[in-house]
Amino acid sequence: MQMLRDGRSFSGHERNCAFLNCEGEPFADFSFASGLDFDDDGRAVCATDWDHDGDIDLWFHNRTGPRLRFMRNEIRTEGQAANANYLSLQLQGTISNRDAIGARVTVWLESDERPIVKTLTAGDGFLSQSSKTLHFGLGSRDIRLVEVQWPNGNTASYVGIECNSRYKIVEGTELAQQIDMPRPGLAIHDAEQETVVASGETRTILSNRLPLPMLSYATLDGSQQQIEPSGRPQLIVFWASWCPSCKGLLREIKQNVAAIEQQGVDVILVSLDEYDIENANGAANAKQLAKELSLPFEIGIAKPPLVEKLRLAESVLFNRVPPLAVPYSFLLDEFGNIAAVYRGQFAVESFLSDASSLSKSAIERRDAAVPFAGIWNSPPKQMLLRAVAHVFQENGYSDDYARYLQMDTAMLERRLQFAKTPEEREQLNREYAAANYNLGVSLVAKNEHEQAFEYFDQAFKANPNHSDAIVNLAVIYARKRNIQKAIELLNLAIEIDPNSYQARMNLANALSAGGRFSIAIPHYQHLVDVGNARTATHSRLGRALLEMKRTPDAVVQFEAAINKGARDGATIASLAWLLATSVDPEVRDGGRALELARQLESDNAIPAVLRFELLAVAHAELADFEAAKEACRQALDSLGNRQPELRRIIAGRLGTYEKLQPTRDDDGKYP
User: Distance (Å, rounded) from C-alpha 268 to C-alpha 277?
Assistant: First the structure.
């Protein structure tokens, strides 16, 4: 399928081949003589004596039409019957597997040194299984002996087997049972294959309609206009002033304006002239042609996103998307869904016929979508709009992504109303919850938290075990300052998924924000213990431990965060301050503190006063008080006349350094 999407060949027009066994000589190609060389895109072939006349018939399965083709073997005529003996054997295992798969049958013929050997297999071709009845062509020879080697290794011999007969051999029995096979009840008649003559237009009727993406164009007066459902069918024609076929199509549409209006169809003509890089006056030329033709329709000029979105829509509809060429047209139904696609200049009569058939059922639309008759073995399928949504999301069109998700959600709501079994309702509820959750996430990305809340809530109601939806609900409650409700929901999410990073992390953060560090620490620690900790986990755990005066443990977590690649200045600064100022001599490490302080010298995200303060305390811990005093003066200079209380504290530390004493901080937190 990927080959097809990439524009490569499926080799679909290579004729079937048939080869004749010339008994020791090279095989002869008799494809044409046999009548088997059809120009089908063949996929599988099954051999069986379908009409039980003693010769092998063939069933072909094709990717193209006809999907199923039966070829009756008529080479063996009445006049040749005496010279065309056969033997048909059915095997049944008792000790071995019931179908006797793997059994090997050897047929010894009179006055013939070489026997005929066949093995019973399960599956003998691509996606195919021929009849399990073993068929032997004998020519004019009689049968001397039949040997069966069963899959378990046992061997049995049978004599008295007659030509032109069918036998059933059961493992463990001494005699082969001759059987009479009734002819199939299904009558198959000769049929002439119709050749579909290619027309001059490329027209595709969609059985599964796709809602049009959000397309906008500029009107001739320069304003922006969105193509939206109007409650009436719409024909959207993309054209260019330099295109002769476009001019012919526009003239034909104008000539049929009365019939189009009678059919109740609105027409929008969107010029792609501005996409012609060699045409500097594209929009002006489009306006000029519209004026010359006196087109009585809405005229628009396409802007850049329009064509890209059209190509994405085509990639959803068609496995292989041909290069964009004008004229190119869509027929939309009254709900804004693409009902038909026209490439090139199309007959207005065909378009009017399509427009009159927009109200047909899904089954009728599917029948109209293929150019030949047939029998369907399954009902029409529903397009998965969430898959369409992700196509647009991957290409950066977040508004279209959210819109398709909303449609998918609405579709699932309708399907839920008609669920027939509890199992079907449960499955639809899971899908509905997933659709609402994805829509909520898309709205959060656009900072539309209030709208997102509604969809997360719907996801939670449809699937009370959707832990991600619960976590997102809790986050929005926290934004609303309803911390207690957020904590309640996060505890529920952890009951559902104890190892959920988001649930644990958000719960621990909420508890920490409320000063409940002793309860928060076990949740941070759980993520560390199960190997689900990230740099933020270690940093937050370090700060919570610091609040509980567990300084050595806090140092371990800050170092773990940095070792995992944490580059946030707050974590590095916290660790540097602790290592330089802790009252615990087992914690202090002036060299490491200075190393960390120097990492932040050029980090403009950290206030200059803090950067100089970290250098000062680190130098002081290393007894380099001259460097400590210099850094302290730079900290004061960076403040100027601002923050007098902080200036007073730093000035006090400068006095401490004058006395050749380092800084000691009993709580380990920078003021």
Answer: 24
Give pLDDT < 70 ranges for the chain. Answer: 1-13, 76-83, 183-186, 194-201, 276-280, 671
d(CA 30, CA 36): 9
* 644-658 helix and 608-621 helix, angle to the nearest 10 degrees: 20
Q: Is the peptide bond before 66 cis (omega within 30 degrees of 0)?
A: yes
Collapsing DSSP states into helix, strand and coil, what is residue 323? coil
Alpha helices in 548-607 (DSSP H): 551-563, 569-581, 590-599
DSSP 87-146: EEEEEE-SSS-TT-TT-EEEEEETT-SSPEEEE--S--BTTB---SSEEEEEETPPEEEE
- Closest to 186 measured CA to CA, from 373, 44, 50: 50
Phi-psi domain of 100 (left: phi exceeds 0; alpha: psi -120 through 50; beta: other): left
C-alpha–C-alpha distance, residues 467 and 567, integer Å: 30
Cβ 662 vs Cβ 620: under 8 Å: yes
Strand ranges, E, within 125-275: 134-139, 143-149, 155-158, 165-170, 177-179, 202-211, 215-219, 224-227, 234-239, 266-271
Q: How far apart are CA 70 and CA 583, in angstroms?
A: 92
E strand or H helix that includes residue 621: helix 608-621
* Residues written for the chain: 671
Is 635 in contact with 612 (CB distance < 8 Å)? Answer: yes
CA dihedral 486, 488, 493, 498 (to 10 degrees): 120
* 508 neighbors 540 (Cβ within 8 angstroms): yes
pTM value? 0.60
Q: Where are the beta strands (DSSP E) in 344-496?
A: none
- ∠ CA 333-334-337, nearest 5°, is 45
Give 135's strand partners.
88
Helix (H, G, I), strand (E, B) or coil at 158: strand
- Give the pLDDT of residue 109: 92
Backbone angles phi and psi of 572, in degrees to 5: -65, -40
DSSP-derived letter for residue 78 is G
CB–CB of 506/491 below 8 Å?
no
Contact between 664 and 583 (Cβ < 8 Å): yes
Please say whether the beta carbons of 631 and 613 come within 8 A: yes
| Count of Cβ atoms closer than 10 Å to residue 476 Cβ | 20
Residue 3, token pair as written in the block: 């080959």
**Cβ-based neighbour number of residue 244 at 10 Å:** 8
Taking the C-alpha atoms of residue 382 and residue 391, their distance in angstroms, rounded to an integer, is 17
User: From the CB of residue 99, how many other CB atoms can be counted at a distance below 10 Å?
Assistant: 14
